[in-house]
Amino acid sequence: MNAGSAVRARVYLRDSARAGDRPAYEVIAEAFREARVVDVSIHRGILGFDRSSGLLSARPLRFHPDLPVVVEATGERARVEAALPRVRAALPRGLITLSEVALLPPDGA
Q1: What CATH class has 1-27+68-102?
Q2: Which H, E and C letters describe the chain, residue by residue?
């Protein structure tokens, strides 16, 4: 993807979330890739907050087995938005955010 403007979608969910027999984060990432959003990452969190469950943490004595996961996809608005119906269908509960972002080339590019 060239330098310029793009949209970043962040999908916040729990590690235990399922879409059928698969982890929801896999189905969500696949939905973005199938919509030709090529910059997709999945991040596991060590600390997060969930309205219904409170603090989710990997710290000793506060360990919660269901830590947060974020699927992040950056690309052209039309492609990101094309994936959203399938993303929503795979998301049992969670949060989706969309942000305008500026893409910058790495140094030396």
Answers
A1: alpha beta
A2: CCCEEEEEEEEEEECCCEECCEEHHHHHHHHHHHCCCCEEEEEECCEEEECCCEEEECCCCCECCCCEEEEEEEECHHHHHHHHHHHHHHCCCCEEEEEEEEECCCCCC
The domain spans of the chain are 1-27+68-102
Q: What does the pLDDT look like over 70-106, one tens digit per residue?
A: 999 999 999 999 999 999 999 988 899 999 999 888 8
CB 45 within 8 A of CB 70: yes
